[in-house]
């Protein structure tokens, strides 16, 4: 892999983010995070097919925006790398994508209930996360293994996400995006917490969500402070 200082720093942060996402239960044995190449907007970095908690710098592969591995790398890649290529290709404002299967989010996709911001930490959810219905895009049959494992399905997922930063995948999980690794990790962690809180609140009665105005204002404030949890999360996963 080309070793410019910017690429080296991005890859090292990507490895750290893999460990943090596992520690914060945003991913488990499955799930992944990517970062756009800081020197080339048409490629991105993503680990080979290993569990996030064990990813090292040596596991990182560079891909093009069709999900094809570059530099002659023939190691096994994640089958769902097209989630990353699809979003990164269609959204130049997004540089980092997370995909996972966190259980608290699943009921929303299953019931069509809109995941909306219940507090300032997840204000980026705005007016609610769209839900990707793979049956609407699967060919030739609507029955699939639920995996986003083609460039076409990655495109469809990205189009469902639209101009937002989070999309639920019915019967599967979620994808989150942001302009940086730190921010996409932050958004993944707090979208999952939002799901738990919203589910509990809905059992009690009608829920007061953030208004669109509150969401816009509080997103700006809270996302200016993400260095604080990032430091905590980094220290938790540092090897002794
Ligand atoms: Zn998945």
Question: Can I get a quick summary?
Answer:
This protein is α+β, with helices and mostly antiparallel strands. It is built from seven helices and seven strands; from the N terminus they run H-E-E-E-H-E-H-E-H-E-E-H-H-H.
Query: Judging by the overall fold, what is the CATH architecture?
Result: 3-Layer(aba) Sandwich
Radius of gyration: 17 Å
Strand numbers in spatial order across the main sheet: 3-2-1-4-7-6-5
- Helical coverage, percent range: 25-40%
- H/E topology pattern: HEEEHEHEHEEHHH
Oligomer: single chain
Small molecules bound: zinc ion
- Please identify which CATH superfamily we are dealing with: Class II aldolase/adducin N-terminal domain
Overall shape: it is globular
Tell me, rounded to a whole number, the average pLDDT: 96
Q: Do you know the CATH topology? A: L-fuculose-1-phosphate Aldolase
Number of helices in the DSSP assignment: 7
Main β sheet profile: 7 strands, mixed
What does this 3D model show about the protein?
The protein is globular and about 55 Å long. The mean pLDDT is 96. It has one domain (5-237): 3-Layer(aba) Sandwich (L-fuculose-1-phosphate Aldolase). The chain has a seven-stranded mixed sheet with strand order 3-2-1-4-7-6-5, with helices on both faces. Helix 1 packs parallel to helix 5 (181-204). It is 38% helix and 13% strand. With 240 residues, the chain is of the alpha+beta class. It binds zinc ion. Residues 30, 80, 99, 101, 172-173 line the site of zinc ion (ZN).
């Amino acid at each position: 892999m080309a070793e410019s200082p910017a690429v080296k720093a991005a890859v090292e942060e990507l490895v750290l983010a893999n460990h943090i996402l596992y520690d914060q239960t945003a991913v488990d044995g499955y799930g992944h995070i990517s970062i756009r190449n800081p020197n080339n907007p048409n490629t991105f970095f993503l680990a080979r097919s290993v569990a996030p908690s064990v990813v090292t710098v040596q596991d990182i592969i560079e891909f093009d925006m069709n999900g094809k591995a570059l530099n002659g790398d023939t190691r096994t890649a994640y089958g769902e790398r097209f989630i990353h290529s699809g979003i990164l290709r269609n959204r130049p404002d997004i540089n980092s994508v997370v995909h996972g299967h966190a259980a608290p989010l699943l009921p929303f996709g299953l019931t069509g209930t809109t995941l909306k911001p219940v507090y300032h930490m997840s204000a980026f959810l705005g007016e609610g996360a769209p839900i990707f219905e793979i049956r609407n895009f699967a060919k030739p049959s609507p029955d699939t293994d639920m995996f986003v494992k083609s460039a076409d399905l990655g495109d469809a997922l990205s189009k469902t996400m639209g101009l937002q930063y989070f999309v639920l995948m019915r019967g599967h999980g979620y994808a989150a995006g942001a302009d940086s690794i730190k921010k996409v990790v932050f958004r993944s962690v707090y979208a999952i917490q939002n799901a738990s809180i919203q589910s509990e609140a809905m059992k009690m009665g009608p829920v007061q969500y953030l208004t669109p105005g509150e969401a816009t204002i509080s997103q700006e404030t809270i996302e200016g402070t993400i260095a604080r949890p990032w430091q905590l999360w980094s220290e938790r996963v540092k090897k002794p």
